[in-house]
Automatic annotation (TrEMBL):
Keyword tags: ATP-binding, Cell inner membrane, Cell membrane, Coiled coil, Kinase, Membrane, Nucleotide-binding, Phosphoprotein, Transferase, Transmembrane, Transmembrane helix, Two-component regulatory system
MF (Gene Ontology): ATP binding; phosphorelay sensor kinase activity
Positions of the Histidine kinase domain: 372-585
SUPFAM superfamilies reported in the protein's UniProt record: ATPase domain of HSP90 chaperone/DNA topoisomerase II/histidine kinase (SSF55874), Homodimeric domain of signal transducing histidine kinase (SSF47384), Sensory domain-like (SSF103190)
Top-level taxon of the source organism: Bacteria
Protein name, UniProt field: C4-dicarboxylate transport sensor protein DctB
EC numbers: 2.7.13.3
Listed GO CC annotations: plasma membrane
Transmembrane regions listed in the UniProt entry: 18-37, 300-322
Length: 593
């Protein structure tokens, strides 16, 4: 029971361990799948963001580079220089305006205009338009200030007159060894690039170095800041009218990730974006490409869901397998239990049948012995009658001493008869097999007493040779007596056929067993009978003489006492029956000592 409880506990323990292990492996698989898919999706998205960024910055660069030379070229134009040096015979203002208008058309720029060194515009390509620059002063513009210092002025701004976003290139015009004559400015349209990229359906931002958005895929992002801007800077920008009167507020619902290096997404107006950034140093711009972060999370989530389903299916399969196995185990157990109980029932029935058979065999043996027993009892009875008759005559004749002697004889004879009947009573009692330490000598003596009447009717002589050290055996005393009576009775029957019949009964120790041997000098056992000797109802004796149960019962009883019964023919002649029985532990100790 304890062993079984331990086994069950062990099995339960291993089941829990297995479940824990499985959950751990499943969790590992799901986490690994999630991270590896999200890593590769992230890498892919980064790659495509980089590509977009390269294309966007290249197209911006190209748009600017295309026109950066134009003011330098125009500044060299003698036509313009002559005009500025007030050589009216050379060219009129109208002619210059038309000239600039034509160049503007050919170059595909927004505007081209000419300013005096004080910033006043004196000629412009848009001379004919309502919002013409002519007469306006742009001295406040940084590009003008740069150009007047002799450098190429580059500037991005929203046109104060046109309200259009543009990039300005300006250059100083001066004749050799003379003070500045003027500044020529070319305004380039970059909104075209914006509308092209808008059609590409990707989100992007282009900011100036202060973080103010001036190109974007969404109109609502324009002229918003993505970096903190101090009030002082805001004021300074307002002064140069770069972004006119736009309030330059922070971009709404925008958040940088806490650690940019960790490739975390940014948050912008309800969505996460992967952000790729590149600087355009010449223009002083920052270009950002924003790709939907769901391109990373969606495949990772799908892969994780698939991995979870796979793990669930596997666990379901394992559970079904385990349940099936448990069911089979239970079924096997039930079958085994049913079988065991059936075997137990059959064994009980067999034991009962065997007990009945043993008893029957005993009664049969008694029946066979009854003639001899009758003789054994009738003899003393006759003697008793004779002694009693004599005693009454001696009493009449007045010989009381002889009467006493006869009565003593009678008493002795009754004692002998009582011994025989007592023994028969003991022999006929039923036993259901109570194996204990028994005195071997008691069994030998009892058996001898039972067969003695039979022996006395023959000329067979019984010899015995006992190992007197052997005192205790493990046996059922009644069963052992019965085996000995059977063996001795058979031996007497066999030896009686000889003129000088002999039976030998001996005991000896063999290891931790005792061997009891019954040998006779009868005809021995015929070879063809040898295999059937211990079969029930095998007999070679005449009808009424034998039932053929003695040896088969004895064989069974010996087995039940953990012993063995065997038969062989003696080399000289006759049969030898050997009964091996375990020695009692007490006897073994005595022997060993
Ligand atoms: P039964 O004595 O009623 O025949 P047993 O089972 O005791 O039944 O014996 C079975 C048979 O074994 C006997 O009929 C006999 O042929 C043979 N047998 C038993 N003991 C001896 C013996 N000592 N010598 C020769 N044959 C024997």
């Amino acid at each position: 029971m304890i062993g079984f409880a331990f086994f069950t506990k062990k099995r339960q323990l291993s089941k829990t361990t297995l479940l824990g292990l499985f959950l751990l492996v499943a969790a590992l698989v799901i986490v690994t799948v999630y991270f590896s898919v999200s890593y590769s999706a992230h890498t892919r998205l980064q790659e495509s963001a980089k590509n977009y960024l390269t294309r966007l910055t290249s197209s911006l660069d190209a748009a600017l580079a295309r026109h950066s030379y134009l003011p330098i070229l125009l500044a060299q134009e003698p036509f313009i220089q002559d005009f500025l040096q007030k050589k009216p015979e050379a060219i009129s203002t109208e002619q210059l305006n038309l000239y600039l208008e034509r160049i503007n058309q050919i170059a595909g720029t927004l505007d081209i205009y000419l300013m005096l060194p004080n910033g006043d515009t004196i000629a412009a390509s848009n001379w004919s338009k309502e919002q013409s620059f002519i007469g306006r002063n742009f001295a406040f513009r940084p590009y003008f200030q740069k150009a007047i210092q002799g450098e190429l002025g580059r500037y991005y701004a929203v046109g104060t007159t046109s309200n259009e976003r543009g990039y300005y290139f300006s250059y100083l015009i001066n004749a050799q060894d003379q003070p500045a004559l003027g500044v020529i400015t070319v305004k380039v349209n970059i909104a075209e690039i914006e509308s092209f990229w808008k059609s590409q359906r990707i989100d992007f931002l282009v900011t100036d170095s202060e973080g103010i958005v001036f190109l974007a895929s969404q109109d609502s992002w324009l002229f918003k800041t993505i970096k903190p801007l101090t009030e002082l800077r805001r004021q300074a920008i307002r002064e140069v009218k770069r972004y006119l009167d736009y309030p330059l507020e922070p971009l709404a619902d925008f958040q940088w990730p806490p650690y940019l290096e960790a490739d975390q997404p940014i948050w912008l107006q309800g969505k996460h974006y992967l952000l790729a950034e590149r600087s355009m140093e010449e223009a002083g711009w920052e270009v950002y490409v924003l790709l939907d972060w769901q391109e990373v999370t969606r495949p990772a989530a799908v892969a994780m869901i698939l991995a979870t389903i796979l793990c669930l299916l596997t666990s379901l399969l394992l559970l079904l397998l385990w349940k099936n196995q448990a069911q089979r185990r239970r079924y096997k157990q039930a079958v085994l239990e049913a079988l065991e109980s059936k075997v137990e029932e059959r064994t009980r029935e067999l034991r009962l049948a065997q007990e009945e058979l043993v008893q029957a065999a005993k009664m049969a043996a008694l029946g066979q012995l009854s003639a001899a027993i009758n003789h054994e009892l009738n003899n003393p009875l006759g003697a008793i009658r004779a002694y009693a008759d004599n005693a009454s005559q001696f009493l009449e004749r007045g010989h009381p001493e002889l009467v006493k002697a006869n009565l003593q004889e009678i008493s002795g004879l009754t004692e002998r008869m009582a011994t025989i009947t007592r023994q028969l009573k003991i022999f006929s009692r039923k036993s259901s097999g109570c194996i204990s330490d028994c005195r071997l000598q008691v069994a030998l003596d009892s058996a001898f007493l039972i067969v003695r009447p039979k022996l006395s009717q023959t000329t067979v002589s019984l010899h015995h040779h006992y190992d007197t050290h052997l005192q205790w055996v493990r046996a059922d005393l009644v069963w052992l007596e019965q085996i000995l009576v059977n063996l001795l009775s058979n031996a007497i029957d066999a030896a009686a056929e000889q003129a000088k019949g002999q039976v030998w009964l001996s005991t000896e120790r063999v290891g931790n067993k005792v061997r009891i041997q019954v040998r006779d000098n009868g005809p021995g056992i015929q070879a063809q009978n040898m295999p059937h000797l211990f079969e029930p109802f095998f007999t070679t004796k005449a009808l009424g003489k034998g039932l053929g149960l003695g040896l088969s019962i004895s064989y069974r009883l010996a087995k039940d006492m953990q012993g063995e019964l065997s038969a062989e023919n003696a080399p000289e002649a006759g049969a030898i029956f050997s009964l091996l029985l375990p020695l009692a532990e007490t006897s073994m100790e005595t022997e060993d000592d």
